[in-house]
Amino acid sequence: MPRLWNLTIPPRMKGFSLPRHSQAISRFRVKRVVTQAVAVHEIDGICTSSKAKRVGDRQMKPFIVIAEDEPSVSELLRYNLEAEGYETVTAKDGDEAILLLDERIPDLMLLDWMLPKVSGIEICRRVRSKQETANLPIIMLTARTEESDRIRGLETGADDYVTKPFSTNELMARVKAVLRRIR
Ligand code: CA
To answer: How far is CA 166 from the centre of its chain?
Structure first.
């Protein structure tokens, strides 16, 4: 089933017209276009204007799973990502991460290489092998610095790779870059 997106247009946004933007919109298989106040239009007959619901900010925030067993690193990531406006959830081991992915597919995953129970590399492999998550963006986090590990991480299907200790600013920039690529 293709993914459907809600598109929120700020109220009274100038320059928005459906014909002008419909090509861009159809690329993203928009389920409905909603302003914060009123429905502008609806696409594919999925939602009529009378049924159009206000799309809350919460739904529009990119959702990021943080799979990291070091509490200080996990907390640092959570704090910074939420400060940047992302919605986050944390997993402290591989089993938890897999459960979270089954519950709700995120927009991006930050994945520690060395996780208890199920390793980051194994999670990455499983994510790529499942149709629903095959394209889920993954940024691997690892203390390893060797070139061979870096290559292995990317071969397993990570979209990007950050070595610990990392600069928070750099990681936030990479998160933005990866999310930009998929949107
Ligand atoms: Ca670890």
So the answer is: 20
